[in-house]
Amino acid sequence: MQAPAIQLKRWPSQQPLLFVILVTLIWFSLYQALTSVSEALVATLPVAREGHLGGALQFFFYDTPKVLLLLTGIVFVVGVVHTFVSPERTRAMLTGKRLGVGNVMAASLGIVTPFCSCSAVPLFIGFLQAGVPLGVTFSFLISAPMVNEVALALLFGMFGWKVATLYLVLGLTVAIVAGMVIGKLDMGNHLEDWVREMQNSQAVNAGEVTSMNWGKRIDSGISHVREIVGKVWPYIIAGIALGAGIHGYVPEDFMASVMGKDAPWWSVPAAVAIGVPMYTNAAGIIPIIEALMGKGAVLGTVLAFMMSVIALSAPEMIILRKVLKPRLIATFAGVVALGILLVGYVFNAVL
Questions:
Q1: Is residue 27 one of the residues assigned to a domain?
Q2: N or C terminus: fewer CB in 10 A for the chain?
Q3: Residue 337 in domain
């Protein structure tokens, strides 16, 4: 009775190309079906889709499998890549550059990865696992949700190229400088123990890298998925549940009342504070920004709000808590919040 189970377990090693093709097709099919399935699930429930509860449920049903699929796919790919390049070589490549080059590279990578903050966390973990310096990984984590092609395209379409360009420059500056500051603070000991143990255990010598066949590389990717996804998934579900509730119930009118042209100086930090508990991506928040602007809110304040929503969301912090200790989370949030405040005041001053 055990023979079929053993054969199934060994199948990826015996037929790695067929396994990868089949799993990739299934992955993309599931990802493409997320919107229709989440809408269908809400339709089966006794709630109005246009209501607060319906919107929150649809958000949860869509984002939970989306983030888990991204996490699984990214961790698997990183696990396979590790069999070609050792973490030590990756670390040497990035740390061998002059100060800030690694942060610029990581922040620039974030422009072409249209992830929300929670979706960027899996790749953040993958960078840490590969031995990329902590400050560099934070530059990516900040840039990926905040300065991506989706945000820039929508800003260009709604507000013009000047606003989009200024947002790009200031957003990258926040990501690069914040990552450099965190890197200078040398807070690697504030990673959770399981992450540091994973980093230390990932050494692969040159002989192992060159001698591995594709079956072993596929097995490595699967092992990475089991190890990381098995530890992180409860935090992902809890974070998205919180974000879904806030996404469905927070009123726009209240936010607009503290972001208007006649609001006092503290409107920018107030907007950042309001944005932190929320959770959405650039495509979801920019239409809200447009609505707030239509209600009389000023651009710098609402962009600071936007940045805090997509770069400092509470669900992201919940997920990061599985990876980072509280002091490092607080440092990350404080440094990024300061940069966002500066962006808000600069926009209000020059526009």
A1: no
A2: N
A3: yes
